[in-house]
Amino acid sequence: MKDDLQDEDGLHPMAVWECIGSRPTHVSVRDILADRRIQSLMKELEPLRSQSKTPKATYEELDNIVYKYTGLHVYQLVSWKKQTWILCCPNLAEKSLVARRKGNKHRWFPVKIIYEHLRDPNLLDLEYEDGTIAYRVDKTDKTQMKMRDAKPGLNRHRLVGTLFYRILKVLSGKCACCDKTIYRKDNGNMDVMPPSTLGAWHFSHQEDKVREPGHCVTLPLAKAAEEYVKCRLECVECHDQSTDASWKRGTGIPRKRTYGMAFHRTIKDILESDAYQAFTKELDDRKVRSNAKEPAISFEELDELLQRHFQLCLNEVVDWDKVYWNKPRPNNKQGKTGKNRNQIITTLEYSLLKLLSGACASCSQSIQGTPPHKFNGWHMDHQHDKLFNPADVCRKNPVIARSEWAKCLLKCVRCHRQGVKPHWEEE
Length: 427
Ligand SMILES: [Zn+2]
Ligand SMILES: [Zn+2]
Known about the structure:
Layout: H1 14-18, E1 19-20, E2 23-24, H2 29-34, H3 36-45, H4 59-70, H5 82-86, E3 96-101, E4 104-116, E5 123-128, E6 133-138, E7 145-148, H6 156-171, E8 183-186, E9 189-192, H7 195-198, E10 201-205, H8 221-228, E11 231-235, H9 236-239, H10 267-272, H11 274-285, H12 299-310, H13 314-317, H14 322-326, H15 341-357, E12 378-382, H16 398-405, E13 408-412, H17 413-418
Antiparallel strand pairs: 1-2, 3-4, 3-7, 4-5, 5-6, 8-9, 10-11, 12-13
Helix pairs in contact: 3-4, 11-12
Bound molecules: zinc ion (ZN) (2 copies).
One zinc ion binds next to strand 13 and helix 17.
C-alpha cells in the first residue's frame, strides 16, 4: 500500500508513522537514533552547524529537511525564527572597535573614540558602553584595542543542536513514566506542545552520565547522540520524582515543580467540529432553551446530554443546581419562573467552550480541574474585529454569541492582563 504520506522509499516521516490514533506511544531514544530517517537527518543537519556569515541552507531549506524526515516543522520545535537563523548574533552583526578594561582582562568591550590626542596621534580616549572612560590608550597596542570582525553566524551550531535535541524529545512521543504526551494528532495534523514549554520535558539518564543532555547542544550531532542514547523522555513532574533530582540534592526541601500544561484548541475549531455541531443541533431539536415554566428537558437529561457529547458532567461545567434549572426566576411577578433559561444555556456554552479549549493559548496552562465558579478567571481574548464583550453576548442570540466567540482564543488571567501573545504570533 502506498499513500501520499510516503516518500519514494515507502517510508512515512517518523512522527506520523509512530502515532497510533491521536495519541503517540513512547519510543525509546535508542530506537529513534537507530532509525534510517534520523541518521539521514543527522547527515544533512551536521554541515548546517557552520557558523559562517551566511547559513549553508536557507530557513525554508532547513524546514524542508526537518519535515522530510520527521513530519515536524521548525516553528513547532524552537522559538527562534528566520531572522535569528540568518543573523544568529545581532551584537556581532558589524565590525566594531573593542578594547579591554581594567579588572577584566579576558573580555573585549565595545568602545567609541571620544578624543584624539593632538600631540601624540597614537593616543586615544575611549568610552565604554556603560559611560566609563579610558584615557590615553595606545591605538597601535593590539593587546589593548582592536577592530573586531563581524561574526553574524556565531552560535548557529547551538541553534541546530537545540533543534535536533527537540526533535528527539518530540519523536519520543510521551513520558516514559506517565500518560502525558508531548504531541498529538488533531485532524491528521501534528499538534506539538509549544516550543516555550518543551524545556519542561527532560532527558533522564538511565546509565552512566557523562554530560547534562541540555549541554550537548553545542556538540557535533553524532557526539551529542552518544549521550542522548542513554536517556529517556520524562515530563517535568515525573522527572522531579527521581531521587537525585538537582533541586533535591542537599536541600531536603520536598519542592515539586508542577507545570500543569495541556494542549490548546481554538474556539473556532471547536465550534466547527462535528461534535459541537451535533450538540447544538440537539439543543435546538429538544428546545432546551425554552423559557416555559417547566424546562423542556430535566436537569438529569441535560447532564446526560453533556456526558454523551463531551464526556463531561454538568457540575464540571456549571455551578448551579437542579432547583435553579427548574425555576431560574422563582420570584417573577407575572409567574414566568422559567424566564432567562435561554441565557443560562448560552452561558453554559460559554463555559463549555472554555473547558473544551483545554489550555491558555499563550502559556499552555491547563484549564482542566478548574471549578466552574472560577471560570471567570479564564478569558476569551479577541484576536480581531471585536463587536461585543465575550461574556456579555451570553444575553444575545446564540448564533451571534458563537460568531463573536469564534474570534477569540482562551487565555489565563495572567496572559490576558499582560497581553502575552501566543507563540505562533510572536515576532
Ligand atoms: Zn510523566
Ligand atoms: Zn497563560
